[in-house]
UniProtKB/TrEMBL annotation:
InterPro entries, per the entry: AAA+_ATPase, AAA_22, ExeA_AAA_ATPase_DNA-bind, P-loop_NTPase
Name of the protein in question: ExeA family protein
PANTHER family cross-referenced by the UniProt entry: GENERAL SECRETION PATHWAY PROTEIN A-RELATED, PHOSPHORIBULOKINASE _ URIDINE KINASE FAMILY
Pfam families associated with the record: AAA_22 (PF13401)
Residue ranges of domain AAA+ ATPase in the record: 52-200
Amino acid sequence: MLLQNTPLTAKALAHFKLPRSPFVDDVQTRDDVYQSPAVRYARAALLDAAQNHGFVAIVGESGAGKTTLVEELEQRILDEGREVLVIKPYVLAMEASDSKGKTLRSTHIAEAIAYALDPQLKIKSSPQARFAQLHELLKASRRAGRRHLLLIEEAHCLPLATLKHLKRFLELKDGMARVIGVALIAQPELRHVLHSQNPEVREVMQRCEVVELPPLDGELEAYVSHKFGRFELTEADVFTPDAFGALRQRLIRTPRGAKPGEGAVSTCYPLAVHNLLARAMNAAAAVGAPRVDASVIAHC
């Protein structure tokens, strides 16, 4: 179930005594990030890839919180004074084939890394010289105490050739130590590619840890409590106890043709939760209901 973005009305904000919407620009500090067990593991996996030059893919549906994890990692590096350079190639208009957009190739990645290490660098023209130049830059930077993380967002749009070549970036070493880690941020399509029997990606599949961000199902009450706690409200100030079961029910998608209860898929991800909560709170405020209950949610 995909819900259209719904802002809280001024009436709803006043009705529930909120100074602003808890669903817009809601993550402004690291303390604002809800720490479910899955999120804590994904955070640790990203930091490990940065510190120890590992290979990880963070996979989740749209609105699952992947971008928030990336931003939290970058803020954590700043807050803790870690010597980690996060390199993010631009992925605007990136597609898996040139017929749909622009593909991100290994040469583009190499240029992004070299530019991040030395913006004034004159990049060599031949592939051999360019990659040798990159390798030397990474080794010198590592010996100076810096760690490097190549972080590619929208990685489900990577062409297979580039995905396969990521292993070769990991193979750049200084002695026995890797000089760069790789983190892929992607929607579930990447998981399907890595788990396929395609021989082109088997070397990546065998080396990349895939960390999935699951729906909030069992964490829904705690998530909402955290969200409203940032505004000094409890979930009981806004929702009746039966509201959460109704929320879960509304965020279940049953594939067409499936029998009730069979093949059901939860879409209980933060963005979908935010949109449904905003619609329900607007509806409750419109009729003057003191709190959002199951009947309000059922009709949103």
